[in-house]
Write a structure and sequence with these properties.
Elements: H1 2-10, H2 12-31, H3 33-61, H4 63-80, E1 85-87, E2 100-102, E3 104-114, E4 122-125, E5 138-140, E6 145-152, E7 157-161, E8 170-173, E9 179-183, E10 191-195, E11 208-211, E12 223-232, E13 239-245, E14 254-260, H5 263-274
Antiparallel strand pairs: 1-2, 3-4, 3-14, 4-7, 5-6, 5-14, 6-7, 8-9, 8-11, 9-10, 10-13, 11-12, 12-13
Helix pairs in contact: 2-3
């Protein structure tokens, strides 16, 4: 106790000064609006910065869940799109969904491994036969066609991407309906080729290219790319059409696998022609 009293006596001047300084600051901020406003503005700014960093950190950890949620929302929209249905009755102007049967289903997946700088490139995705994925199914994103399932295991699948030789995806020029096949020359991963288009047709730059449909793999109308250049092929009555892929295969992360419910029916019917 004596030591405490001695401490008070020794530093009484400084303690009184600190007390008076505290009272002065309290009176200043209580009765002067400007500094009080500045204080709360600074505090809010600091709090906002902290919240921003916290949100960025939380957003990073929730990225996978957010991507999955967005994929599910996109699937719901795709399932309502007319390309997912096959008409069961003809001659109707207004389509009623009860008159249509779903032909395509879309399964979300995440890419876990990929290449884009080889002659034949691939993607590995995190779903396989246990999720209903089979060899030959089409794969795409909301930006464009990605490729075709090459093989599967129980929990994984390998996609043969558009950046390969002879993938034989049937595509067409939007508007004219002129069709051909998708090819890649093994050079620029952003540029593809459309083959088989007659050079007696006018093909303009920036024309959109979409899937033709009917090949049992892709519905009609899925984006493929946009015409970049058109040139004649020497000795052939065909155009050399170069287009920019709608999807950048160097950055792709999430995809959709297409399941065609009517695949067996179409194949059985077409095989009868060959018998």
């Amino acid at each position: 106790m004596r030591n405490f009293i001695a401490f008070i006596k020794h530093f009484q001047v400084y303690l009184v000064f600190a007390l008076l300084q505290g009272v002065a600051f309290w009176l200043y901020f209580s009765f002067n609006q400007f500094p009080k406003t500045q204080y709360f503005t600074t505090a809010s700014s600091l709090q906002g910065t902290v919240l921003t960093y916290r949100n960025d950190l939380t957003k990073h950890f929730n990225l996978s869940d957010n991507n999955l949620r967005l994929q599910k929302e996109n699937i719901e929209l795709l399932q309502k799109n007319p390309i997912s249905f096959i008409p069961m009755q003809n001659g109707l102007v207004k389509i009623n969904d009860t008159l249509n049967q779903t032909q395509f289903e879309y399964i979300p997946a995440t890419i876990i491994n990929s290449t884009y700088d080889k002659r034949d490139n691939y993607f590995t995705i995190n779903i396989g036969s246990s999720q209903g994925v089979e060899r030959g199914m089409g794969v795409f994103t909301m930006n464009g066609v990605v490729g075709i399932i090459h093989n599967t295991s129980e929990h994984f699948s390998v996609i043969k991407s558009c950046l390969t030789k002879k993938l034989n995806i049937s595509i067409m020029l939007e508007g004219t309906g002129e069709f051909g096949f998708l090819e890649w020359n093994g050079e620029n991963p952003r540029i593809g080729s459309m083959t088989g288009v007659s050079n007696d047709l006018l093909v303009e730059k920036n024309t959109k290219i979409v899937t033709r449909g009917g090949d049992k793999v892709f519905p009609k109308g899925i984006p493929v790319g946009t015409v970049d250049s058109v040139a004649s092929i020497e000795g052939k009555p065909l155009w050399d059409i170069q287009f920019v892929f709608g999807e950048d295969f160097r950055k792709i992360q999430n995809v959709y696998v297409i399941k065609n419910f009517l695949l067996d029916e179409q194949e059985n019917l077409e095989n009868q022609v060959l018998e």
